Amino acid sequence: MALAYGKIELINQYDEYKNQDGELDASQIRRWSGEMMIDTGAIRLAINEEIKNKLGLRKGTITNITYADGSISQIEMVGGIKIRFGDRICYTGDLYCLKIQNHSWAVFH
Questions:
Q1: Domain formed by 3-107, architecture
Q2: What is the three-state SS of the chain?
Q3: What is the rounded CA–CA span in Å between residue 58 and residue 69?
Q4: Residue 39's beta-bridge partner residues?
Q5: Distance (Å, rounded) from C-alpha 94 to C-alpha 64?
Q6: Full-model pTM
Q7: Domain chopping of the chain, boundaries
Q8: What pLDDT was estimated at residue 54?
Q9: Positions of the chain with pLDDT under 70
């Protein structure tokens, strides 16, 4: 597992669909960008509540996760995000929305 940091842009993919259908102006597409830690071995992306709200994502499914210290917590899974990293783009159907407490890191492998 290698860790790296990079600038990522997250875009509400449903806003993009509305824009393509002429229902939403491009300037109204909700986005977030910033530096994030990138774990090349991870299979999921985790965002916090602030990013979820900025992107206008709907309430998602509740699931259990295990933290690195072995504790288990229920978190929300949300989706509908286009991810841009450099010249790469992908769409994701589910992300973890974390309420970060005590700087714990979640294990998503």
A1: Beta Barrel (2.40)
A2: CCEEEEEEEEEEHHHHHHHHCCCCCHHHCCEEEEEEEEECCCCCCEEEHHHHHHHCCCCCEEEEEEECCCCEEEEEEECCEEEEECCEEEEECCEEEECCCCCCCEECC
A3: 29
A4: 3
A5: 14
A6: 0.76
A7: 3-107
A8: 93
A9: 1-3, 94-109
Token readout for 42 is 């991870």
Residue tagged 């995000």 (tokens): 81
Per-residue pLDDT at 10? 92
Structure tokens given for 109: 């492998």
Strand order in the sheet with 106-107: 46-48, 95-98, 72-78, 61-67, 106-107
Positive or negative, the CA dihedral 71, 72, 73, 76 is positive
Contact 56, 12 (CB under 8 A): yes
**Predicted local distance difference test score (pLDDT) of residue 66:** 84
Where on the phi/psi map is residue 70: left (φ > 0), alpha (ψ -120 to 50), or beta?
left
